[in-house]
Specification:
heterodimer; A: mainly alpha; MetI-like fold; 2 domains; 15 helices; B: 15 helices; 75% helix
């Protein structure tokens, strides 16, 4: 437990180690319970005495889950997260660069609109957004979730912060060498803001994957649901089939956990940079 | 008009950036504006279309009695007046306030404590803990919530089993079906999904504290606690304020937990503003009323955000 720099075993250290261990168990246990619960039989789940480790593991819950169109739900979720991520990275890096490095008429106005929008909670626009999406015949399509996610201004704000670090001399040099705007952006700006794009990509992916409220309002057909919505519906219909619901939770959690663990570094960097700069 | 507006900022920045100011002609400025807007265009289309317009519509519709399949009727401030006479709205407001008042200090204090315990650890150990505390955030509210719902279950839940085993309770408690306990369960789960981000922020803030000051204090014989409060605490205050603000905003917006666990029940004891808006707008189709509550919530949250921007601006 004791891996601190000075490494002396004081009572404070022992107590803090114990509290850390308890907190860790407390936060990791629900995940353990999802995964073990998903392979337990109904008989092993519906007992007042919990079974700490699955003794008769079974795939039955997963079979049942995928007979609901869970595969399709998973595809929908991946589609939403990937497309929202790509579009956000493209639009935000372009807009962020211009807002950081160019001077043009209306810039202050646009930037204050972005700041104001960022200060407001996303959920309050859902009621008008639903009407708008219905009018555009986008309701119950995946685009109804993707487009507002891409329009959310946080990404532009983050990319503006990153673009400000680019030295003006580099842009001058590119201009003198006769590089056009597009070439300057692709060959000089993009490589320099790569860490920012990495952070934004994983942030958008996770947000879009988990944006339950938006999905709940915009998607209603069984074939256009996301995996989160699917589990929520299963829970509403079959409240006590915990094995099935845990299988759903596991299927929803595994891909996003994998993405997080792979790109963890970008993510923590992004939080620290984007946030602390405010 | 156009040129003067463009030249002003140029003049202000003039002394420090010689090369860009001299020799920028009017034609060049126009060219630059056009190319800037071409770069902005893709973002602006979605931003205006799917964020700004709905925001304006939210404010606009809040002055109407608006529902499905019928023309809106103008009611002026009717929705707002109705809100202040609506007992359930007040109850939801009180519940939201309770969640904020309990969750925000606990989350902040705990995350500061955890961060101070782990930030000096060797690389792998520190990332391990940061990762553990971030897991519930990444796993997603729905997956986390459904497993807690099972754990709190009256008959098959592990919480009752452990609480009975350790003698805390004698008979099974219906945690989520009881007016007194339900909201505390929600706060507990909210806590587990809220501490990840503050811990990451604190770890990086504590890592940036000037080490020579800390060493100097230790040489002068300051105790650990003194060093913390006198040297480190002032330096991480901006991070603390930021964490207070984002945790407050997140707690205000607590929705999925409630929709999935209790649907606001029993007897409205777990209604929050966000859930009540959802209930009125999307279950009872009272769009105008829902929007009016949304406007109030937005104002409250905007005030907190403004505070945060002010604090952030001061640091530069």
């Amino acid at each position: 437990m004791n891996s601190t720099v000075t490494g002396k075993l004081t009572p404070y250290r022992i107590i803090s180690g114990i509290i850390l261990a308890i907190l860790t168990v407390f936060l990791v246990f629900p995940l353990y319970w999802i995964f073990t619960g998903s392979v337990k039989t109904a008989a092993d789940i519906n007992t007042p005495t919990p079974q700490w480790f699955p003794t008769n593991p079974t795939w039955a819950n997963y079979e049942k889950l995928f007979s609901n169109p869970a595969g399709l739900w998973l595809f929908n979720t991946i589609f939403i997260a990937v497309v929202a991520m790509l579009l956000t990275c493209i639009t935000a890096s372009m807009a962020g660069y211009v807002l950081a490095k160019k001077r043009f008429y209306g810039k202050a106005f646009i930037f204050s609109a972005i700041i104001c929008a960022m200060a407001l909670p996303k959920q309050v626009i859902l009621i008008p957004l639903l009407k708008e999406m219905s009018a555009l015949h986008l309701h119950d399509t995946l685009w109804a979730v993707i487009l507002p996610t891409v329009g959310w201004p946080f990404g532009v704000f983050l990319m503006k912060q990153f673009s400000e670090g680019i030295p003006n001399e580099m842009l001058e040099a590119a201009r003198i060498d006769g590089a056009g705007e597009v070439r300057t952006f692709v060959q000089i700006i993009l490589p320099m803001v790569k860490p920012g794009i990495g952070a934004l990509a994983i942030f958008t992916f996770i947000t879009a994957w988990n944006d339950y409220f938006m999905q709940l309002i915009m998607l209603t057909k069984n074939t256009s649901l996301t995996i989160s919505l699917g589990i929520a519906n299963l829970q509403a219909e079959m409240a006590t089939d915990f094995g099935l619901i845990m299988a759903g939770a596991a299927v929803a959690a595994i891909p996003i956990l994998a993405v997080f663990l792979m790109f963890q570094k970008y993510f923590t960097q992004g939080i620290a940079m984007g946030a602390v700069k405010g | 008009m156009t040129t003067s507006a463009i030249k002003k900022p140029l003049k202000q920045k003039g002394p420090s950036k010689r090369s860009t100011v001299l020799g920028i002609s009017q034609a060049e400025a126009r060219r630059e504006t056009i190319s800037a807007y071409l770069f902005l265009l893709p973002f602006l289309v979605v931003f205006v279309g799917f964020v700004l317009i709905p925001m304006v519509m939210c404010l606009w519709t809040s002055f109407f009695d608006s529902t499905m399949a019928r023309e809106d009727i103008f009611v002026g401030f009717g929705n707002y007046i109705k809100m202040f006479q609506d007992e359930i709205f007040w109850k939801a407001l009180m519940n939201t306030a309770l969640i904020v008042v309990v969750a925000v200090p606990t989350v902040t204090a705990f995350s500061l404590w955890v961060a101070s315990a782990i930030y000096k650890m060797k690389g792998a150990a520190c990332s391990f803990f940061r990762c553990v505390f971030y897991l519930p955030v990444v796993t997603g509210t729905v997956a986390v919530t459904v497993v807690w719902k099972w754990m709190f279950n009256n008959y098959y839940g592990i919480v009752n089993y452990i609480a009975k085993g350790t003698g805390l309770i004698e008979n099974n408690v219906n945690w989520l079906g009881n007016e007194k306990t339900a909201i505390w369960c929600i706060i507990l789960i909210l806590f587990t999904t809220s501490i990840g981000q503050p811990i990451v922020l604190y770890v990086s803030a504590l890592g940036n504290v000037d080490a020579s000051l800390v060493e100097a204090a230790e040489v002068d014989g300051a105790t650990r606690l003194q060093t913390f409060w006198k040297i480190m605490w002032p330096q991480i205050t901006p991070t603390t304020l930021y964490i207070l603000v984002i945790t407050t905003i997140n707690s205000f917006q607590c929705f999925a937990l409630i929709q999935l666990l209790t649907s606001g029940g029993p007897n409205h004891s777990t209604d929050t503003i966000m859930y009540y808006i959802y209930y009125k707008a999307f279950k009872l189709y009272e769009y105008g009323y829902g929007n009016a509550m949304g406007v109030i919530l937005a104002i409250v949250i905007a005030l907190f955000s403004a505070l945060q921007f002010k604090v952030a601006g001061k640091r530069d």
